[in-house]
Amino acid sequence: MHGTHIVRHGGDPVEPTLADDLLIDAEEDAEPSPPSQRPFLLGTALVLVALNLRPALSSVAPILAELVRDTGLSATMASALTTLPVLCLGVFGLMAPGLARRHGSERVVLLTLIVLAAGIGLRAVPAFPAQALGAVAAGAGIGIIGALLPGIVKRDFPNHPALMTGVYTMGLCAGAALAAGATLPLARVLHGSWSLALACWAFPALAAAVVWAVLSPTPADHAARRAAQPAGGLWRDRLAWQVTLFMGLQSSLAYIVFGWLAVILRDRGVEPVTAGLVVSASIMVQVGSSLVAPILATRSRQQSVAVLVVLGCTLAGLLGCLFAPLWSLWGWSALLGVGQGGSFAIALTIIVLRSGDPHIAAQLSGMAQSVGYALASLGPLAAGLLHDRTGGWGAAGILVIAISLAAALFGVAAGRDRHVLETE
Known about the structure:
Layout: E1 6-7, E2 13-14, H1 18-29, H2 38-50, H3 55-58, H4 64-71, H5 75-93, H6 96-103, H7 105-121, H8 128-156, H9 161-189, H10 194-199, H11 202-215, H12 221-228, H13 238-267, H14 272-297, H15 304-323, H16 329-353, H17 358-376, H18 378-390, H19 394-414
Antiparallel strand pairs: 1-2
């Protein structure tokens, strides 16, 4: 914006800063819309998209025993099936910035929702190849969309990043809870067809695509290209790696819960539908904690203490579900929900807070969610392999303790009041 001057409150013109340039470019490139309606409409669309980013992951565990029985999978192959979509979240998340540069974030989200729905629909075929291919497509869709959303929040809700991060994280948790609790009853309604029950979650994804196409803003091509330009030095920045490792390690605990908690509870003697409902109830608690935790955490300039609190709740709740008496199970699952909803929401909030502008937020989100989810995929795989080797879940308890301690280490560092790419 050469030759442009900004008048501050004092009345003297000054040279525009980088932040001013970003604001001016955004105003020039953005499609006009009523200021009172656009945030509400975009927020609504974000929540509906978020509702569809976890059913593909949380719907499998409640019917995993039936899937293994009907397809003849070994325990190792079942572990791979629960790990595959999480690994794809990381691999395909790396593609998000380049796709946004070429097509715009809004278009990419729309097209990827359709890919997600197609992948879920493939699960209607009760055979391992179709289940694996569906897992890859679903993981790809979730990974790309998840990497783009924090940048959209930073750009379109600059004054309320913690609130909006909490709102769409609440949508993520609600979708996960619904799928965890409803998939097995849905299979019984469908005459015992677990494959059709899994495939039913494609319909909400298609509905979200329609709503997103109508409510999301017309992408600003120049802004999309600018947001996707590589942020020089980000992959060499220590704080960026601390954010990334915190995201990955806390997500690893979440995917152990998604992939195995219902199986663990069934092995402990809990009735199958009840096991699914316990997991669903735990995730429903996340709906509330994911909204409240970012708001409370951002009352301080640092989020390190909040990180320790939510990880402590996560570890205590998960160990309680693994080893405590079954009569106390609902309480431990609620504590687990408080911790995991807060952990994920704070991790996403930290991505936004540690970024100086939407451009950096989009890049940091891509790094944290791609590398982080690739790391997170090792958690459910390791839990399954340990169970396969030992025949019990005691070793999984040691695993979650180790992951929680590592997450706390990097989360405390990521919670400091600094920006990535900032000179010490």
